[in-house]
Specification:
The chain is mostly beta strands. It has a single domain, classed as Sandwich (Jelly Rolls). Helix content is 6%, strand content 45%. The chain has helices at 17-23, 29-37, and strands spanning 4-5, 46-47, 52-55, 58-64, 70-76, 91-96, 104-114, 117-127, 132-133, 143-150, 155-162, 167-174, 182-188, 191-192, 195-196, 204-212, 215-216, 224-230, 233-238, 248-252. It has a 16-stranded mixed beta sheet that branches. The chain has a two-stranded antiparallel ribbon with strand order 1-2. A two-stranded antiparallel ribbon has the order 14-15. A hairpin with a 2-residue loop joins strand 16 (204-212) and strand 17. It starts with a strand and ends with a strand. Residues 1-36 have low confidence and may be disordered.
């Protein structure tokens, strides 16, 4: 077991908002500008891989050491607390790969700060491709559910639902490079061209009904509680597992 895991990262290049409208045609203008500026990327600076890890960009839970073909989870959309003029980001998602592998197949939501104003939207991403932002409305307090599944041969179905707003979005995607090496339920500080971006103050996000291959986090191999920290500053912390190993929360600590 390696103590230090630093996967090769290809961080997003910042694209002007107009170009984003052409490339990410599903999003609203505000959401598209945000999606073009950042990506959810593989786990970075992962220290002490095991039951309690530290990462510079992720907080939540992951399973590794198996072959994962279906991941599900639910969460309540958090509210972003934005100071005057602040630009910061926070993403909440479920996915396959990214921990010990260099692709990520994922879908989730954001609670961002854009020049001091909160912005909320849903998205999916087949990293290293850019994320695709959705026009479907998302608000704080909405009940979100997401699933990423694959046939194991490169075909993926990514589904995200907002039961509060009563919408569901599903897309079929392909990744021949996916190794299916991990399953995750994550709050993330996304990355841009300069590295990990400031983490928006999302307060706390509660995940529930979290399963991989039909089993709880605790019943799958190597359940790993990941704390987000960088340069000695703790940014977000997961709680212990509850609900038979299917639920937990992540609490914001610092930008």
């Amino acid at each position: 077991m390696r103590k230090f895991l630093v996967p090769a990262l290809s961080l997003a290049v910042v694209i002007p908002a107009l170009a984003a409208m052409l490339v990410l045609g599903r999003g609203t203008p505000a959401a598209m500008a945000h999606g073009a500026a950042h990506q959810s990327v593989p786990l970075a600076l992962h220290l002490h891989h095991g039951k309690n890890s530290t990462s510079s960009n992720w907080s939540g839970y992951a399973n590794t050491g198996g072959r994962f073909t279906d991941v599900k989870g639910s969460w309540t959309q958090p509210s972003a607390s934005c100071s005057s003029g602040q630009t910061a980001y926070s993403s909440f998602w479920v996915g396959i790969d990214g921990d010990t592998t260099n692709t990520v197949e994922q879908t989730g939501t954001d609670a961002d700060c854009s020049s001091g104003s909160p912005v909320y939207y849903a998205w999916y991403e087949m990293y290293p491709k850019f994320p695709v932002n959705l026009s479907n409305p998302v608000s704080p307090g909405d009940s979100m559910t997401a699933e990423v599944s694959t046939n194991g041969s490169g075909s993926f179905t990514l589904t995200i639902s907002d039961s509060t707003k009563r919408w569901t979005f599903s897309t079929n995607q392909t990744s021949k490079k996916a190794r299916l090496g991990s399953a995750e339920w994550i709050a993330e500080a996304p990355s841009g061209s300069g590295g990990v971006l400031p983490l928006a103050n999302f307060g706390s996000v509660g995940f529930s009904n979290c399963t991989a291959n039909g089993l709880s986090i605790s019943a799958n191999p190597n359940p790993d509680a990941i704390t987000m920290a960088s340069n000695g500053v703790t940014k977000a912390v997961p709680s212990g597992l509850g609900g038979g190993g299917t639920s937990f929360s992540v609490t914001w600590k610092h930008s």
